[in-house]
């Protein structure tokens, strides 16, 4: 079921620009303490061993079903008749229930979901006055049982006493059902389909006919297991997989689809549709089985005649179905890695969201990808049906809303999610009272599928990390679903467990080892009932890791993470001798540590430290063999883990000050800088120049500065992989033009002045003209790991910029626009390192762009072109 995952990036511009920011030149100095608050971390608490139930012959200590694992079985034969005028279903179900448990069962429990719509149901009583998505909006008489008979050991069926308690029915068996024996339970019943059925059943009127969508079509067995016995009110959606046959009788002008393969297509489909249906089973391209033309063809299925549609499915203890005369019907073959094929289908009214026209081919790709990543799709058919339901899944079927893209999720996103429920919780048949095992594990594989297929996820990982980085407390993920506050449901059941598993896969275990263990868990527990402890044990045994600290941090508690840089010290006070770095874990959560170290020679180094560095206490010191001044030490540079305080994640020098020599002036510093990079004469010879910097890790983002004599500057910021220009600025002595995503933007006088300065290739050449006021600070500042002279330049209309020059080499190490960083149009700060000579000019080969509320992005120089002239 899809629920609102929270706000996600909807602006393409924001998505692109957020990847462009950067930060590189920072430096190291002896003995700086970053963290001030005392740590509340307790290593013994974090790394205490998990106390698991002792393994036995039923459930092993390694998280696998044991040799004596047992599970009861329920097989269903169902016959229903739909009256479209009254929305009434007349039904008969015969359940063959096998007791595979080691003890006798004097009674059994049934689940009767239609009873939630009775006025006296617990769900109705708990529904708030203004209603709720899953509350009761419309009352019915529930499931009216007309007769209930049982038989044991092939005896004749006899009326049996039973007790109805809300949505459950306790059936007293005539004699206890012995281990290995079967009971037959036969029930005649009826119910009225509510128009608004708590967002998992209901009707949708359309111009071409009503769409009827059904859940809780028949009374089904509750699960009896070795953990809790009968899972009744304390349970969530928890199903005993079995064999299902259903005969669905409806008016002949209706198309019926749902759980199970259609077994009698020749009896219910006219010749044209039958031919297309059979063709689709063999086609890798989508076949339109029923088109808009067919909907309007009144000669097909004359009114007044009923047809019975027979569906069959293995491993389906429940189901969803829909019926309508309004359905368009598309289908395509699905190729599975075990050599089987299945049929993917989409049924939707013509008024549906246009994305429904491509849903069928999307289903094919989604199912094939899940099957190749994890285990093969288990059913013969998969059908996506449009109607009034936001999103719900059953064995081999999904019901989705026909027009809305609920909570910002696209039809593709919702389809990816609901089809994922085949693996969790149809195949791995968990009890959804552990909401994270149902929705969280599914959301996790949804995200993997999105990465593989380049599909739209229900939330951006960067957003989720931001949400989880807050200090607000929440219940633990392991909270029973029934007690999770509605406002926390998306985070606790979907987002947080999915993010946790992504981090476990990517940051802790590694994809190969994680995937091997995860696939084995799915295989071992296919159509069985694992518990959370089974999952924890299976992943630990499969990966060979003690993950007690991880489960305790992410699932069993609402612990927060706060990693910090405590101290950075040069060995022997000499950068060439390396540095000793001390990190600190200040809060209760434990995670591995990713540390980026930047040197003034332009080199970037990333270190990965395992979570076990915290096993002995809240601090850890390690040595790094630097050879030049270290400009930055940064924890989690990509912001991939949820840290509640990022202010202590970066070491960028001490901020200490030293008095400047009084005889040194701003002009002295600028002349020294110009000499260091090649000399003023050489620089002024450049009549046309171009510098292009590309993102350090991927080269996808390009930042290009161009100059053409006498007064034309141009800057472009480009997304290289799709050839998209994000920003373009062109300045002359009389004009400034600024474009974002090909859209010209009007500028104020001050904004024009800002961009004139930001686009200069060598702004120092203008510092002492009549349009600028230049002042040298009276103190050197330790910034980016070295002492620097600070020069403040003010334009005639008041724009202020700070420029920082290394006291030792004279090189510029940073330039920064003063004022509100939100107002910076191109960048708020640039940092420089890795100076090298090229074409007679010494330039920084590493640059960082920083912008407000965006991640810093390290860039490297990948193209240079200077043309001299007279």
From TrEMBL:
InterPro entries (UniProt xref): Peptidase_M1_dom, Peptidase_M4/M1_CTD_sf
- MF GO annotations: metallopeptidase activity; zinc ion binding
Signal peptide positions are: none
Instruction: Give start and end of each Peptidase M1 membrane alanine aminopeptidase domain.
Output: 407-554
- SUPFAM superfamilies documented for this protein: Metalloproteases ('zincins'), catalytic domain
The protein's name is Peptidase M1 membrane alanine aminopeptidase domain-containing protein
Q: Which organism is it from?
A: Chitinophaga niastensis
């Amino acid at each position: 079921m899809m629920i609102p995952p929270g706000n996600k990036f909807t602006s393409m511009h924001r998505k692109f620009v957020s990847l462009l920011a950067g930060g590189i030149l920072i430096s190291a100095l002896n003995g700086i303490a970053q963290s001030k608050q005392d740590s509340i971390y307790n290593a013994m608490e974090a790394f205490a061993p998990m106390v698991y139930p002792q393994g036995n012959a039923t459930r092993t200590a390694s998280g696998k079903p044991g040799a004596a694992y047992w599970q009861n079985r329920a097989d269903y034969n169902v016959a229903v008749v739909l009256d479209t005028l009254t929305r009434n279903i007349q039904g008969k179900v015969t359940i063959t229930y096998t007791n595979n448990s080691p003890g006798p069962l004097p009674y059994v429990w049934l689940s009767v979901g239609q009873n939630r719509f009775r006025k006296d149901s617990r769900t109705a009583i708990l529904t708030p006055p203004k209603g709720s998505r899953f509350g009761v909006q419309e009352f019915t008489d529930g499931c009216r049982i007309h007769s209930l008979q049982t038989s044991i050991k092939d005896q004749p069926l006899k009326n049996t006493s039973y007790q109805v308690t809300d949505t459950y029915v306790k059936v007293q068996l005539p004699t206890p059902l012995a281990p290995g024996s079967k009971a037959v339970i036969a029930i005649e019943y009826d119910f009225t389909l509510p128009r608004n059925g708590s967002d998992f059943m209901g009707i949708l009127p359309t111009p071409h006919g009503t769409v009827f969508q059904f859940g809780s079509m028949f009374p089904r067995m509750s699960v009896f297991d070795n953990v809790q016995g009968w899972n009744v009110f304390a349970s969530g959606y928890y199903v005993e997989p079995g064999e299902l046959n259903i005969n669905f009788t409806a008016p002949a002008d209706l198309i019926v689809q749902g759980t199970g393969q259609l077994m009698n297509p020749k009896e219910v489909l006219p010749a044209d549709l039958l031919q297309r249906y059979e063709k689709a089973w063999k086609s890798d391209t989508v076949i339109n089985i029923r088109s808009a033309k067919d909907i309007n063809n009144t000669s097909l299925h004359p009114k007044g005649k009923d047809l019975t549609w027979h569906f069959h499915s293995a491993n389906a203890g429940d189901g969803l179905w829909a019926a309508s005369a309004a359905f368009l019907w598309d289908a395509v073959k699905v190729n599975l890695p075990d050599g089987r094929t299945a049929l993917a289908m989409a049924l939707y009214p013509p008024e549906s969201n246009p994305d429904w026209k491509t849903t069928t081919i999307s289903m094919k790709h989604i199912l094939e990808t899940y099957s190749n990543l994890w285990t093969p799709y288990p059913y013969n058919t998969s059908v996506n049906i449009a109607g009034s339901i936001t999103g719900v899944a059953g064995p081999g079927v999904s019901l989705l809303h026909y027009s809305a893209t609920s909570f910002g999720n696209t039809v593709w996103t919702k389809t990816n999610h609901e089809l994922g429920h085949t693996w969790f919780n149809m195949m791995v048949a968990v009890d959804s009272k552990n909401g994270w095992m149902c929705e969280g594990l599914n959301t996790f594989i949804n995200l993997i599928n999105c990465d593989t297929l380049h599909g739209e996820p229900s939330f951006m990982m960067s957003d989720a990390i931001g949400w989880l980085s807050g200090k607000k407390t929440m219940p633990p993920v392991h909270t029973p679903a029934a007690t999770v506050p509605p406002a926390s449901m998306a985070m606790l059941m979907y987002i947080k467990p999915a993010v946790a598993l992504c981090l476990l896969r990517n940051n802790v275990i590694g994809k190969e080892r994680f995937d091997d263990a995860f696939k084995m868990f799915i295989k071992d527990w296919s159509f069985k009932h694992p518990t959370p402890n089974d999952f924890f044990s299976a992943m630990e045994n499969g990966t060979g890791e003690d993950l007690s600290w991880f489960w305790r941090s992410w699932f069993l508690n609402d612990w927060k993470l706060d990693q910090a840089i405590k101290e950075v010290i040069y060995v022997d006070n000499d950068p060439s001798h390396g540095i000793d770095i001390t990190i600190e874990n200040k809060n209760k959560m434990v995670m591995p540590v990713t540390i980026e170290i930047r040197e003034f020679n332009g080199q970037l180094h990333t270190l990965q430290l395992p979570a076990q560095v915290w096993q002995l206490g809240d601090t850890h010191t390690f040595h790094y063999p630097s050879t030049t001044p270290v400009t930055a030490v940064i924890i989690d540079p990509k912001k991939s883990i949820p840290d509640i305080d990022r202010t202590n994640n970066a070491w960028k020098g001490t901020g200490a000050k030293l008095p400047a020599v009084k005889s040194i002036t701003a002009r002295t510093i600028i002349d020294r800088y110009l000499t260091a990079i090649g000399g003023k004469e050489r620089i002024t010879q450049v009549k046309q120049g171009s510098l292009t910097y590309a993102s350090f890790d991927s080269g996808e983002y390009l930042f290009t500065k161009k100059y053409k004599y006498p007064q034309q500057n141009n800057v472009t910021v480009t997304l290289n992989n799709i050839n998209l220009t994000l920003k373009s600025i062109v300045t002359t002595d009389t004009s400034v033009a600024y474009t974002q995503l090909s859209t010209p933007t009007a500028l104020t006088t001050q904004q024009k002045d800002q961009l004139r300065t930001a686009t200069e290739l060598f702004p120092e050449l203008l510092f002492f003209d009549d349009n600028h006021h230049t002042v040298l600070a009276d103190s050197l500042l330790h910034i980016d790991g070295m002492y620097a002279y600070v020069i403040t330049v003010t334009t005639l209309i008041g724009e202020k910029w700070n420029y920082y020059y290394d006291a030792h080499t004279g090189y510029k190490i940073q330039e920064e626009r003063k004022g509100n960083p939100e107002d910076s149009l191109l960048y708020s700060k640039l940092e420089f390192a890795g100076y090298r000579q090229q074409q007679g000019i010494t330039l920084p080969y590493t640059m960082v762009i920083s912008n407000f509320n965006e991640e810093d992005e390290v860039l490297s120089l990948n193209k240079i072109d200077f043309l001299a002239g007279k």
